[in-house]
Write a structure and sequence with these properties.
single chain; 470 residues; alpha+beta; 46% helix
């Protein structure tokens, strides 16, 4: 029996289509891997660059503390001239602390662009709007937002606008907005992710009783607000890549202590006696590490040794949180097979400046100086786990999250789900959360399976894992 003419051609066409499809799938996989690699490289490089800027600023402010101290021993100037020089040193420190970290945006952008990152229009709009808010809200309410010096808010807004004038490639993801508060489940993105994925074990570990006892949106406590004291303290620091410093006012002898004065200024007891009047002047301002500079094992983080999200032990001289950088990189991968849009790639990286101080008996953590004074002690920058930084609950480079926190949440707490739009991912989870059937599902799971919930082990956080790469 003879084959009909043309059958071989049909099979060849089908084979060619299959081969072409497989080739396109391979191309798509290659593009996805390349985009992910580029995002990782761009995010890591941007975070390290911005953290390096933080370290340079801390060293400049710390060296200025020492220069200020040594100025008090200057015998070639009159006491009034010495005081004037000290005031100039203080102003340079204020400017470095308040304006300097914004340069980290440009530093991060440069490295992100050179590693193939794409511009982030969402973050650009967030920062443009914030510059406007600074000129209106902050500047217009001096009792709530005191300026570090006259005209500081205008300079601050202008510096932000200059930094973003060409665009944003590495979004700063841990901005310390002056009014930003935390400590509420509705301000945690993990809550929404747990609802979306029905991750009831997250509730078991992080919100015991919430699923079982929740009845409606009226059960939620009001969103927290920042105290005036906390807001005033934050006004001394840059919101973007904050150094988390504070000022200490007092005499050199009071703030440093006599022995530290001699050691840091390389002076003798006779020198101290000769300059005693200036060393006892109570009006001098020094820059010190704020409360955020605390051990990772205490305070906001309270990581126990087995929970800390790194592999290996942390040496005591490096066991300190504080200023750090979190950068978010976004890119888009086109679907080459269906030409139907594609998907987004996102990478978040964190980095921090590190150093040690010599306290006479050996190396110690940078906060070990008298009164936690800053010195030029920072020598290195390293990538760190994002979960060890803090401040990321607000996820400030996520435009959808910022809109949800600022606009949708107040409406939800006031009127429930009728006031929000399910097109917002976070609002959609709240709409789901309000359904009794969802709570019944959670109750059944926790009743029958809570004993099987296990915290992840290894280099991730023992608090339920981490969605981040570092």
């Amino acid at each position: 029996m003879r084959a009909r003419g043309g059958q071989v051609a049909v099979y060849l066409v089908l084979a060619l289509v299959a081969v072409t499809f497989l080739a396109m799938m391979n191309v798509g996989a290659f593009l996805a891997v390349r985009a992910k690699t580029r995002a990782m490289n761009a995010g890591d490089a941007a975070a390290l660059a911005a953290a390096r800027r933080q370290g340079e600023l801390l060293n400049a402010i710390g060296q200025a503390n020492i220069n200020h101290l040594k100025m008090l021993f200057n015998t070639s100037l009159s006491p009034s001239e010495i005081v004037e020089q000290c005031r100039e040193i203080e102003m340079r420190q204020r400017r470095d602390c308040f304006l300097g970290p914004i340069d980290g945006i440009a530093d991060g952008n440069g490295f992100a662009r050179s590693n193939g990152a794409e511009p982030d229009e969402g973050m650009l709009q967030i920062l443009r709007q914030h510059a406007t808010d600074v000129r209106t809200k902050y500047k217009g309410n001096p009792d709530l937002y005191p300026e570090p010096w006259e005209g500081a808010w205008d300079e601050y807004a202008a510096k932000i606008e200059t930094a973003i004038s060409e665009g944003i490639w590495a979004g700063p993801d841990n901005i310390d907005y002056l009014d930003a508060a935390s400590g509420h489940f509705l301000l945690k993105r993990q809550f929404y992710n747990a609802v979306a994925g029905r991750c009831w074990c997250w509730f078991h570990f992080n919100a015991p009783g919430l699923v079982e006892n929740y009845s409606s949106f009226r059960d939620w406590a009001p969103l927290p607000s920042v105290s005036d004291e906390e807001r005033f303290r934050r006004c001394a620091n840059c919101e973007i890549y904050s150094l988390h410093l504070k000022t200490v006012t007092g005499s050199a002898l009071q703030v440093f202590g006599r022995e530290a004065v001699k050691r840091l200024a390389d002076k003798t007891d006779e020198d101290v006696e000769a300059a005693f009047a200036l060393l006892s002047d109570q009006e001098h301002v020094w820059f010190a590490f704020g409360d955020e500079w605390e051990p990772w094992s205490s305070g906001r983080f309270k990581f126990s040794p087995e929970e800390f999200p790194v592999v290996g032990a942390v040496r005591p001289e490096y066991d300190v949180a504080g200023c750090a950088v979190v950068c978010r990189i976004r890119s888009h991968i086109q679907d080459v097979v269906t030409d139907g849009g594609g998907r987004d790639i996102e990478w978040t990286a964190a980095a921090k400046p590190f150093g040690t101080v010599d306290v006479g008996s050996g190396l110690d953590v940078v906060t070990a100086m008298p009164s936690r004074l800053v010195t030029a002690a920072f020598t290195d920058v390293r990538l760190v786990p994002v979960d060890s930084v803090g401040g990321t609950e607000y996820a400030t480079s996520d435009e959808a999250w910022m809109t949800h926190v600022r606009e949708h949440l107040p409406k939800y707490l006031d009127s429930g789900t009728s006031a929000i739009d399910g097109a917002c991912f976070y609002c959609a989870q709240l709409i789901d959360w309000e359904k009794p059937v969802v709570h019944e599902e959670g109750k059944r799971f926790l009743k029958n399976n809570s004993s099987t919930c296990r915290r992840p082990e290894g280099s991730g956080s023992a608090r339920g894992g981490t969605p981040h790469g570092h």
